[in-house]
Design goal:
With about 70 residues, this protein is mostly helical. It contains three helices and two strands. Bound molecules: FE2/S2 (inorganic) cluster.
Protein backbone atom coordinates (compact mmCIF):
# COMPACT_ATOMS: atom_id res chain seq x y z
CA UNK A 1 0.00 0.00 0.00
CA UNK A 2 1.33 3.40 -1.00
CA UNK A 3 1.04 6.43 1.27
CA UNK A 4 2.48 8.74 -1.35
CA UNK A 5 1.43 7.67 -4.82
CA UNK A 6 3.31 10.47 -6.58
CA UNK A 7 6.64 9.29 -5.21
CA UNK A 8 5.83 5.61 -4.79
CA UNK A 9 6.48 5.60 -1.04
CA UNK A 10 5.00 2.55 0.62
CA UNK A 11 3.48 2.44 4.10
CA UNK A 12 6.39 0.52 5.63
CA UNK A 13 8.94 3.01 4.32
CA UNK A 14 6.84 6.01 5.35
CA UNK A 15 6.32 4.51 8.82
CA UNK A 16 10.06 4.06 9.25
CA UNK A 17 10.65 7.66 8.17
CA UNK A 18 7.94 8.92 10.52
CA UNK A 19 9.41 6.97 13.44
CA UNK A 20 12.87 8.35 12.70
CA UNK A 21 11.66 11.95 12.39
CA UNK A 22 9.45 11.68 15.49
CA UNK A 23 12.48 10.59 17.48
CA UNK A 24 14.74 13.38 16.23
CA UNK A 25 12.93 16.37 17.67
CA UNK A 26 11.93 17.87 14.32
CA UNK A 27 8.56 16.26 13.68
CA UNK A 28 7.48 17.94 10.48
CA UNK A 29 5.94 16.57 7.32
CA UNK A 30 8.78 18.17 5.35
CA UNK A 31 11.30 16.24 7.43
CA UNK A 32 9.46 12.99 6.67
CA UNK A 33 9.62 13.69 2.93
CA UNK A 34 13.33 14.44 3.27
CA UNK A 35 13.89 11.24 5.25
CA UNK A 36 12.22 9.32 2.40
CA UNK A 37 14.42 11.14 -0.11
CA UNK A 38 11.46 12.65 -1.96
CA UNK A 39 9.72 16.00 -2.33
CA UNK A 40 5.97 16.61 -2.21
CA UNK A 41 4.22 16.87 -5.55
CA UNK A 42 0.42 16.92 -5.38
CA UNK A 43 0.45 17.14 -1.56
CA UNK A 44 -2.54 14.84 -1.02
CA UNK A 45 -0.48 12.61 1.27
CA UNK A 46 0.46 15.44 3.64
CA UNK A 47 -2.61 14.96 5.80
CA UNK A 48 -1.88 11.23 6.15
CA UNK A 49 1.76 11.88 7.01
CA UNK A 50 0.74 14.47 9.60
CA UNK A 51 -1.67 11.96 11.13
CA UNK A 52 1.10 9.35 11.28
CA UNK A 53 3.40 11.90 12.93
CA UNK A 54 0.72 12.84 15.45
CA UNK A 55 0.23 9.17 16.32
CA UNK A 56 3.98 8.63 16.64
CA UNK A 57 4.37 11.66 18.91
CA UNK A 58 1.40 10.83 21.13
CA UNK A 59 3.22 8.40 23.49
CA UNK A 60 6.05 10.91 24.00
CA UNK A 61 3.57 13.68 24.73
CA UNK A 62 1.66 11.51 27.21
CA UNK A 63 4.86 10.59 29.05
CA UNK A 64 5.97 14.24 29.17
CA UNK A 65 2.67 15.24 30.76
CA UNK A 66 3.04 12.71 33.57
S1 LIG B 1 0.59 11.58 -3.04
FE1 LIG B 1 2.33 12.35 -2.04
S2 LIG B 1 2.86 14.11 -3.15
FE2 LIG B 1 1.18 13.28 -4.24
Amino acid sequence: MFVCNCNGVRMRDMSAAVDHVAGCGAPTVAAVYAQCGVAPKCGRCKVDIQRMLDDAMRPAQAMAAE
